[in-house]
Specification:
Largest sheet: 3 strands, antiparallel
Distance between the termini: 76 Å
Structural class: alpha+beta
Number of domains: 2
Number of helices: 3
Low-confidence stretches: none
Number of strands: 3
Length: 110
């Protein structure tokens, strides 16, 4: 243990300093515990749908392309599809995404 000064004023100063440091440490601990509780309460993000159709802009919002649900290039305007709906859209005039290739994944082309 380190040597402490024998006089009262310096001992009071040290005790005051240590109390302040203890208070800061307790506040940091409380904050870290609250963050850990909040992280434990967060839900994982929902699973993306298996297939999506990207929709265009304007009246009727015509379909633009079919994507795999986790495709990075699916755009902001989309809705989920079942595998059967995706096959119907691809067999119609809706093109497949050139990046995720849903037509290949659905077994429509090799």
């Amino acid at each position: 243990m380190s040597e402490l000064p024998p006089d009262l004023p310096r001992l009071r100063t040290i005790v005051t300093y240590l109390r302040n440091e203890l208070s800061r440490a307790e506040q940091a601990l409380a904050f870290a515990e609250e963050q850990a509780k909040a992280a434990a309460r967060r839900r994982p993000p929902p699973e993306p749908p298996a297939w999506v159709i990207e929709q265009g802009i304007g009246v009727g919002r015509p379909p633009v392309s079919v994507h795999a649900g986790d495709c990075w290039d699916r755009g902001k305007r989309w809705r989920p599809l079942s595998a059967e709906e995706a096959r119907r859209a691809l067999s119609g005039n809706v093109p497949a995404c050139t990046h995720c290739r849903p037509d290949t994944a659905l077994g429509m082309i090799d």
